[in-house]
Design brief:
The chain is of the alpha/beta class. The chain has six helices and six strands. The longest helix has 17 residues, at 112-128. The chain starts with 19 loop residues before the first strand and ends with a strand. Bound molecules: S-adenosylmethionine. Keywords: Methyltransferase, Transferase.
C-alpha cells in the first residue's frame, strides 16, 4: 500500500514472496518504483498498480478483491489518505481471514504540548508534505478497522516519554485478521 519510490523494497525476502502488488497513487513515482523493483531483483514478482488503493474496480482488474490478500504492508501512508478510517476498513476487507496487516505509521502524540505543536504545524505541513497529517489517531484507526485475532497480533505504541515529544511518534505492529 503506497510503496512510493520503493524505498522499502529491499526489506522483502524474495524467497518468501509469491507476488507483490504495489498500489501507488502518485503516477510520478511509478518509473522510479519500477527501477527499484529491478534493483531489488523482484522482476516477475512485483506488479505496480498506478492508482488509489480505495479504487475497488482498479484492484479487481488485478484479481484483488475482498478476502483475497495474504498480507498488506503499510509504511508511512495512512497519514496521507483522505479518509483513513474508510481506507483502513477496506484494507481489512481485502485481507483473507488469517491475513496479516503489517504497519509502521506515525500518529497524534499523547503529550498535550506536543499535540498543540502538531496542531500548529499541521496546516503548513499538510500543504508542503503531500497531505501528510500529523494529528491522526492512527493506532485506533487501525485497531478499529475490524476484528483482529488477539493471539498472534501485536500493536506497539512507542512508550517512552521522549517519543511523545516527537511530532511524529510511531505506532507499529502486525495484526492478524480473525478467521
Ligand atoms: C510518505 S510516502 C511512503 C512511501 C513508502 N511506503 C515508504 O515508506 O517509503 C506515502 C505514499 O503513499 C502514497 N499514497 C497516498 N495515498 C494513497 C492511496 N490512497 N492509495 C495508494 N497510495 C497512496 C503516496 O503517493 C506516497 O507515495
Amino acid at each position: 500500500m503506497g510503496p512510493g519510490v520503493g524505498t522499502q523494497l529491499d526489506r522483502f525476502d524474495k524467497l518468501k514472496i509469491d507476488h507483490i502488488y504495489g498500489v501507488e497513487l502518485n503516477p510520478a513515482f511509478v518509473s522510479p518504483l519500477l527501477a527499484e523493483v529491478e534493483t531489488a531483483e523482484l522482476q516477475g514478482k512485483y506488479t505496480v498498480i498506478s492508482g488509489a488503493v480505495e479504487d475497488e474496480r482498479l484492484l479487481a482488474e488485478y484479481g484483488l478483491k475482498a478476502g483475497s490478500v495474504d498480507s498488506i504492508v503499510c509504511i508511512g501512508t495512512l497519514c496521507s489518505v483522505s479518509n483513513p478510517e474508510q481506507t483502513m476498513r477496506w484494507m481489512y476487507e481485502l485481507l483473507k481471514p488469517g491475513g496479516v496487516f503489517i504497519f509502521w505509521e506515525h500518529r497524534r502524540s499523547r503529550d498535550f504540548l506536543t499535540r498543540l505543536v502538531q496542531g500548529f504545524w499541521n496546516p503548513l505541513w499538510q500543504f508542503v508534505m503531500g497531505g501528510c497529517n500529523l494529528s491522526r489517531s492512527t493506532g485506533d484507526i487501525i485497531r478499529n478497522a475490524g476484528v483482529w485475532d488477539p493471539r498472534d497480533s501485536e500493536i506497539e505504541v512507542q512508550k517512552s516519554l521522549a517519543s511523545e515529544w516527537s511530532i511524529m511518534p510511531r505506532v507499529e505492529g502486525r495484526l492478524i485478521k480473525r478467521v
